[in-house]
Amino acid sequence: MMEEQYRKGSFTLPGEAGYEKLTLQLAEKWGADVIRDSDGTKLSSEIVDAGYRIYSTICIIREHNEFAIAHPETQQQTFLISERVLAVDSTVTIPLLDGYFTEQFELNTTSDAMKYWQVYDRTTEEEVPREKWSYADGKVTVCDATPWHSYTASFLCWRVWEEINMYNHTTNHWTSEHLRQLDPRHPAAWAFLKDWLEQWCVDNPQTNVIRLTSLFYNFVWIFGADMKHRNWFTDWASYDFTVSPAALDAFEKEYGYALTAEDFIHQGKLQVTHMPPSPAKRDYMDFIQRFVAEKAKELVDIIHRHGKQAYVFYDDSWVGMEPYGKYFSSVGFDGLIKCVFSGFECRLCAGADVPVHELRFHPYLFPVGLGGLPTFMEGGHPEKDAMDYWHHVRRALMRQCVDRIGLGGYLHLTEGFPEFVDCIEQMGIEFRKLKELHQHGAPCVIPCKVAVLHSWGSLRSWTLSGHFHETYMHPLIHINEALSGLPVDVSFVSFEDACSKGLQDFDVVINAGRTGDSWSGGDAWKNEALVSELTQFVFNGGTFIGVGEPSAVEGYATLFRMADVLGVDKDLGARVCHGKWAFDVTSMDGVRLCREALGAEKNLYLTDGKACVLAEENGIPQMTVHAFGHGYGIYMSDFKVSPESERMLLDLLLLRKTTEGRMQYVSDNPYVDVAYFPKDKALVASSVSSEEVETTVLTDAGEVQIKLMPHEMKICKL
Amino acid sequence: MMEEQYRKGSFTLPGEAGYEKLTLQLAEKWGADVIRDSDGTKLSSEIVDAGYRIYSTICIIREHNEFAIAHPETQQQTFLISERVLAVDSTVTIPLLDGYFTEQFELNTTSDAMKYWQVYDRTTEEEVPREKWSYADGKVTVCDATPWHSYTASFLCWRVWEEINMYNHTTNHWTSEHLRQLDPRHPAAWAFLKDWLEQWCVDNPQTNVIRLTSLFYNFVWIFGADMKHRNWFTDWASYDFTVSPAALDAFEKEYGYALTAEDFIHQGKLQVTHMPPSPAKRDYMDFIQRFVAEKAKELVDIIHRHGKQAYVFYDDSWVGMEPYGKYFSSVGFDGLIKCVFSGFECRLCAGADVPVHELRFHPYLFPVGLGGLPTFMEGGHPEKDAMDYWHHVRRALMRQCVDRIGLGGYLHLTEGFPEFVDCIEQMGIEFRKLKELHQHGAPCVIPCKVAVLHSWGSLRSWTLSGHFHETYMHPLIHINEALSGLPVDVSFVSFEDACSKGLQDFDVVINAGRTGDSWSGGDAWKNEALVSELTQFVFNGGTFIGVGEPSAVEGYATLFRMADVLGVDKDLGARVCHGKWAFDVTSMDGVRLCREALGAEKNLYLTDGKACVLAEENGIPQMTVHAFGHGYGIYMSDFKVSPESERMLLDLLLLRKTTEGRMQYVSDNPYVDVAYFPKDKALVASSVSSEEVETTVLTDAGEVQIKLMPHEMKICKL
After folding, report:
1. What is the pTM of this model?
2. Domain count of chain A?
């Protein structure tokens, strides 16, 4: 049958020793051309020799416990901060590791580490001079303390349990030896790792692709001792776990200034990705990115020398290896693998500068999911989870395709879940059809260039810091997810780039965040050049969409620096006695309001009373459209992604274009996404509904009506 | 009957010419001993000669239109700020009065005023040099402007319509001539006003008490041109309307530094009472307070020389005359009259250092109330309004009494509202009974000294800025209202006093406000001495109650400087990746939770996981009690006053005392307030319920059970 050509290829199957028959059977059903191992699984020769290409997973810094125990000084480290301890008299004793999971951390009390320790009076935020404190038995004692002030100590620790292994142990009840991790910055460790990889390549001739999981430094993941506070800190894009006295010494030598513990500890807040980076943090990130790229290139060179390819999995120990970073392409990876729950993750992978882009689908074949709920066990519905993620990923794939898809985990767990097995088969077919269309030519894009404006710019294209469920509280991830499937051109622009290159190439600029965070921008808005550029942009006909607390910074006449453009501002209290403009809620031609997407924020007020208020809550405007010069300022108090809000966002993006007549190749049903591939004259429509739906699409050939079964994707040749 | 002695005296009736019979009839029914006129009414000789004492209302700066028109330079002024105007090229023209109600304001373009005008680039917050702008035809034109920046002009205006008169015209459809107002700082005006008062005293021998309404400068009340923005700004305690070139010149001469327009305009935010005052504002307030007191004393001396008494009405043109200010008692007023909706206003009046304290009850005898709803007209229920206010005022009177009560307005409006007439009669009786008890000796107070800690301290005892319905959005007014009827000792303490005098005399300290406002404190919390003092206070056994965003200031490890005492803090985004302590909601012995009083705030988190969480919302703690040293830190995300929350607050105040056994002379029913007057062995119980209620009170004589009819007050002799 005609579908046959879409039943095979571009699919990576996780094999499992002991389940050889199942492995080969599912490889056939899902059309796999590659079999891989997973964290905790190994392939048997029966699988390896079955004629498939083979991926082998290597977490390079892990699984060397013997070496790590023999050379504990080669292990990775981090800064930690003690609890705040109140001085009730002039001496205060600070226990250092209280509150931390001591299976993860051990104090580094070597002299090269101790020179980076710091003690702070947190009441005054002054550092306590070194001669006023001493260390013994896991505690720091401060003399000449000021009574009723609080003190902390910041110190270096060895990280003695690799965090992904720690997670798997604590989540999946693993009982094997705790794996340690080596720091490639240590010369002895680096020599060991290179030799080890060399030997591994020799020992594993059957492997075609080494799947690096990932490189050297894990994202920051600190466990607490108390089960009520087990998750002490997690930030998927922070650099704290790259630190060591050697790194700090090298940094000082290169940059001419020294970083301190406080640069990382930051009053106990740490340096979270969601807050704008300090200049020192930017320097340090660049320093680490170069180090990671250089070392990674050495590994890739070894792999290539052995005739194998090097793919990298962009999760876990990925830090310093951002695919949109300056040094990524210099490494020479052959492929980038990204695990995906969401559309934005698909776009993140698809847009990277690397030969092969591969998605690893969720759910992972594990008993429980990342959120801790049952998946492949009683109570789990993996086929529902898979379809939910596919709804998000498919609409992104309709805009920009990847080269491969696949799964990970324990294949035998799929037994007893035949609907899941069928579901994956169907996804493979749909994927291959989309891939073919993209290979023939790109889909139509509405001529609307969107810039998402934030502190990180292109470095954090599409993602904020980790998955959607880790960042759902930030409106920008909802915006990014919505954009990932819209037929517009999307760029991620930093404030620096906005100022230096201007915004004239864009039609719409979006800024979405909370006062002071990376996504809103914080102090970046003190730069009058930024405010002027964006003001001019809108005045000359651009659209600015502000969400939450956009362009917010204190010290000016308005909290939102773009308040006069938006026609709305937020009061922090100084305007509590100002009368507010009365307004009526109105609708707006061309904007399909999705009230559920918006918030119920307080203290918003109209600046000049001229904004059109599309939604309110308790008399407070929640969504406004404000004509400004030749353009529009649009404000939304929040944005939650949904099929309806994706459609509303598209309407807003196109607000200045709707006078040009009805848009072609867009769906009139929020539950249906549409993409048109002119080369093949193929109109793709896909449904995210669990019911039958219909949509009407305006095409060059007139109106086309399409009916879709639940979850169906259909390709209509025009 | 026994009640007869309580039927007459201490009551001020508003008489009305043309309704002489009604006036005398109601004087009899309500037991008046004084008849007064009101704004807009005059007494006829029939009333004046009826044997009552006579109050005559004088608004000294008003009703001199002939003089004001002849000498327009003697009128009062204010600073205003233009709208922000965007520069699209290098010239920008700023219309000055656009958006303002031009019946209220006229530009002052005299050279002594123009020297105080300022033009600002609001994009950079830099002042535009004088040589770069010019004025003509109501507009300022800026040259060499920076395109895409916004500009404002700040300028002086004459205020050509006295604001209370303006309010009455616009609210009550008055059609009489617009009254102007004179500035007593102008020597010609001051000479005129003194002569006028002298002559008035000669012409009005029948008047016993001159009721000054109030003194010179109205609270700030700026009207907008557009009916959708008619209320441009109102702050009952701001000083902007005291300003004039003469005042500014005199200030500079005395203080050695000049104030600028920007000191008042403050980026368009103005200097609202709810925000902490700058040092310059504090200087200016003291400067004005001295001026007002000196001038007021001259008036009082004239009044006394004519054998009359001088009472002052503490509303309207009261600015600079705070009863708890440094200079109030130096004026020599014979009485203070306060209009009251609430208990806190009663305490404010009752505690002032002046011989006679008089309350003017609400509703005012006007067709509509301050909120704009019908009162003495169709649809109004003045007896319900009166009883509602009386519930609040009576419980305050049970703690601290005043000398007199009364009404104001148009007496004839009471016709057709017999229930109101009866209601006032009953209130008079209850008031006189309470007054008698207080005269015999003070009621019992629980030995619990409470300090309400904020930027203003005793200067703003009890009130924030105006009435409850104007300040309801501030949790502190709810706290003050609750405290006004609780049997504890209450002080209002500034941050300066807390540091210089210490907190050791108190049992409980309360700080309630929003980040950066006067009530929370803002930058005052950067003073480590304040943090240390309060930390020590709690550690040594005190209770700290923080409400909303207490002790909040940015720049430290925690937003709440008292976070370690409270066990709870608020995250502004830097801790979004920190795991939060899990908790169970529990109850606490001795605390009757009133969940409705609390908020539903986001981003609160437990600091050390040890606080007892009494209420939560969406997993976020909303009320916590945290043992700290020998004391308690108590946090509430909000506080809304109600009978139940008043009881909860009392429980919290006494948390450290509940181990001492059950409290005597407190009610176990939130709808019943109780006060015990030991001298008369009188237990007073009053109900705020519209149903029959019961309470049991522990007394020296054992348990006493009291049943009360709706709204009833009962006195039980023990």
Report:
1. 0.97
2. 3
